[in-house]
Design brief:
- By secondary structure, this protein is an alpha+beta fold.
- Helices cover 32% and strands 24% of the residues.
- The protein is globular, with a radius of gyration of 16 Å.
- Strands 1, 2, 3, 4, 5, 6, 7 and 8 form an eight-stranded mixed sheet that branches.
């Protein structure tokens, strides 16, 4: 029984460490969970999870999809001006929050190998994002993809280092 516990803990450690942001933008990891459950399981995505909950987007992102989510880290949200997150999480600002969050979602499953330099992708928000491939890095607008191709049951997640803003 003790060996089983050690094996289980090692497996959890391996899975958890595989989702740490990395500098290599082309990194494939698989997880047997939907996009929301995947995000909930990661300490570096807690701000995104709080925003998705405040925007009432949990059920949508747990849906069949497939979805491609460009997921900003807690550090990405921290780059926003002071008070921005707290303001967006207020119920009276839900529409603006949803606009920003859905700008990070592209319908369909787009892997890093599908990205082309200069490619435009229409988001769930309705506007398009621009892909730039340069020096071995993928950028989505002004955000760098730090970890790519985290496969979920209903799509794929790419971790980004900056919150991208839709045209207002």
């Amino acid at each position: 029984m003790k060996k089983l516990g050690v094996v289980f803990m090692m497996a959890i450690l391996v899975v958890a460490s595989s989702f740490s942001p990395k500098s290599n933008p082309i990194h494939e990891t698989r997880m047997d969970a939907d996009i929301v459950d995947l995000a909930i399981s990661q300490d570096f995505l807690t701000t995104l999870v709080a925003a998705v909950k405040a925007g009432d987007l949990v059920e949508t992102l747990k849906g069949d999809g497939p979805f491609t989510v460009f997921a900003p880290t807690n550090e990405a949200f921290a780059k926003l001006p002071a008070g921005t997150i707290e303001n967006l999480l207020k119920p009276e600002n839900k529409a603006q929050l949803v606009k920003i969050l859905t700008y990070h979602v592209v319908p369909g499953k787009i892997l890093s190998s599908d990205l082309k330099n200069g490619q435009m992708a229409k988001t769930a928000e309705g506007s398009s994002i621009k892909v730039t491939l340069m020096d071995g890095k993928a950028m989505i607008n002004n955000a760098t993809v730090t970890t790519a191709d985290i496969i979920a049951d209903n799509g794929v997640v790419h971790i980004i280092d900056t919150v991208i803003m839709p045209p207002m």
